[in-house]
Amino acid sequence: MNIDAMAPTKPNRPRATFGLIISANYENEGDLGARIAEHREQVGLARQAGFTSVVCNQHFLMHPVSSLATIPYLASVIDVSGDMRLAIGVALLPLLSPVLLAEEVATLDWLSGGRAILGLAMGYRPPEFAAMGVSLHDRLGRFTEGLAVMKAIWSADPTWSFQGKHYRYEGLPGGLKPKQRPHPPLWIAADVDAAVRRAGRLGASWYPNPRAGLASLRRQVAVYEQALREHGHQTPEIFPIRRELFIAPSEQGARRTAIPHLERQLAQYESWGQFEAMPEADQPARAFEEHEIPDAFLVGSPPSLAEQIERYVEALGVNHFVVKIQWDGMSHRQVMRSIELIGAELAPRLA
Q1: Is 88 helix (H, G, I), strand (E, B) or coil?
Q2: DSSP 8-state symbol, 342
Q3: pLDDT tier for residue 13 given thresholds of 50, 70 and 90
Q4: Domains of the chain listed by start with CATH number
Q5: CA 20 to 30 Å from 321, out of 89, 158, 237, 275?
Q6: Contact 24, 60 (CB under 8 A)
Q7: What is the pLDDT of residues 262-281, one digit of tens each?
Q8: What's residue 51's pLDDT?
Q9: What is the DSSP code (8-state) at residue 211?
Q10: Cα(first)–Cα(last) distance of the chain, in Å?
Q11: What are phi and psi of 323, to 5 degrees?
Q12: Cα–Cα distance for residue pair 57/165, rounded to 1 Å
């Protein structure tokens, strides 16, 4: 058997591109208006620097921080984002009404001129499930059924029905269809092999665990590609990966400056329960030395970061790096400088 003939047809990929994460989480005591204004400046500069997407994630009840609602927040930067894609990265589908989410995603797609991307995840924080009255045990069923409901609404002509365990609808009128047909591109956040396989089965872009190491992801990309092949899907045009990134003119300066921010950022993630959703082998230490930064975190000078990113491109085939560059305790000025360096010094090395 010709193995090459079994491989999915891969479109001509552009060089590695960048997406900017704007964190919607702010300290309760802070001036939200000032932080929102800063993010608008960051998005505007990222557009000028050649970033191709702006990404915002979703969480609820995040004390001691406040979290702004994802889709309205993305809509608020439509005017400063140029032609950047607006990625919901990611919505916690089991916690949401699929009917409401379908209409909100379609609205964002029309407001942005067809630039929306829908990222979805199952969620992991018990307080969020408790607040929404949803059992953690039901999250897989609600995820798969919820996505089917959304697709049914978007394809309805003129009515739609759905019969499942968690959602049941009969003969309802269709709703708002997105500008992009049949729907915006899908990114499926997946940590374990079964979820990675599900992303491939759906023909969606796999959005890997943001703190999984390269060795774990190299094994899982084979799982993803096999699922794509088995279900007759091409590799999606955008293959995203989320990484934390810190850039500075010198390698030593980048590492020295990044470590305190990295330790604070990881402490925040641990308080949210994210370590429990990670493979044990990829759970990072709580303290670092300069030479011990895990490879899931991209830290260095432009030449060093170009090499690190090329390793991911070669090992996994990813082509869109969704980067969080505003770590806990980092100033707006530092973030703006990082965006400038990515555009002027890093991106040209990946051309």
Answers
A1: strand
A2: I
A3: very low
A4: 16-135+177-350 (3.20.20.30)
A5: 275
A6: no
A7: 777 677 666 656 555 555 55
A8: 97
A9: T
A10: 36
A11: -115, 135
A12: 28
Query: 297-320: per-residue pLDDT in tens?
Result: 999 999 999 999 999 999 999 999
Two tokens, residue 185: 């591109």
Residue 9 has pLDDT above 60, yes or no: no
**Half-sphere exposure of residue 36: CA atoms within 13 angstroms, side-chain side:** 14
Report yes or no on whether pTM surpasses 0.70. yes
Phi and psi for 51 in degrees, rounded to 5?
Answer: -60, 145
Q: Could you tell me the two tokens for 216?
A: 């774990």
CA max distance for the chain: 63
Is residue 204 within 8 A of residue 180, CB to CB? The reply is no
Mean pLDDT of 330-351: 94
Beta bridge partner(s), residue 88: 56, 118
* Burial of 174: CB neighbours in 10 Å, binned 0-12, 13-18, 19+: middle
| Contact call for residues 231 and 298 (beta carbons, < 8 A) | no
Query: In 42-79, which positions are buried (b, 16+ CB within 10 angstroms) versus exposed (e)?
Result: bbbbbbebebbbbbbbbbeebeebbbbebbebbbbbbe
Q: Per DSSP, which regions of the chain are E strands? A: 17-21, 25-27, 53-56, 65-67, 85-92, 116-121, 159-163, 168-173, 186-190, 205-208, 240-247, 297-300, 320-324
